[in-house]
# Entry
Amino acid sequence: MPRKTQIRDCVPHLTLFDDVFFRKAAEDLDFCQEFVETCLEDLTIKVKTNLPQVELLNLQGRSAIIDLICSLGDERKVIVEIQKRHVKDHIRTARYNTALVTVDTTDPGEDTSNITDVILIYVTKGDLFGYGKTKYVVKRTIANIGKAIDDGEVMIFINAKVNDGSRISHLMQIFLGDKQFLNEFPKIHNRIKQLLETEKGIEEMSTLYEQYFSDEWNENQAQWKKKEDEWKSEKAEWEKKDAMRNKTEEELRKQVDALKKDNEELKRCLQDAKK
# Structure
């Protein structure tokens, strides 16, 4: 079967946990509006702008790709991260990404009281905290008195593992590919139909899917090349140390042989002196 046909056959099975699908779906403002208002449980908010797949750099040049950044009507920024892959530390990843967006949206010399408020929506398949909740809201608190403080940052962790019957958990089932709750989310439903059930959408997704795997392949190849180079460098270092150790052992053997020779010579001299 031709590769293009294989890719086209895969498209209808994509879910919103797949990077390439969420990226394309999030280009639609109505999709973002319904997604954000559901996650924040606030139907009064207004999503003004939506930017999917935003690459941000820190001062040291390290980059991070944010799945979606939305601007709300009250100027707050909403950062959306859809995590399908394994991450060593989700909490610190979330913290790092909110810091990047905060810095990126703050002008040099800006008074700190004017720093943009940010809300992170961090979506995972598994329950990161293990308390059996679909949604966890994290804010800073004064730990020894249990009082919350408002520093303009809120982290919301949502998972698809816990289905508590809430509207958010129904949305998460849609992210997993379950269609039974689609009618509760007409804007999201419409976007999914556009991309997965129309000829134009399937063609667009097939092209993106093929490019995505090509990019992923190149990235994996680059990572393997980097690991191979690191291994070769480490091997060369060990061989260098091994050669030095062998050289040192050879020198020690020569010194021992020389001492033995000197000792034999000394014994002969003593025997000759006794005669």
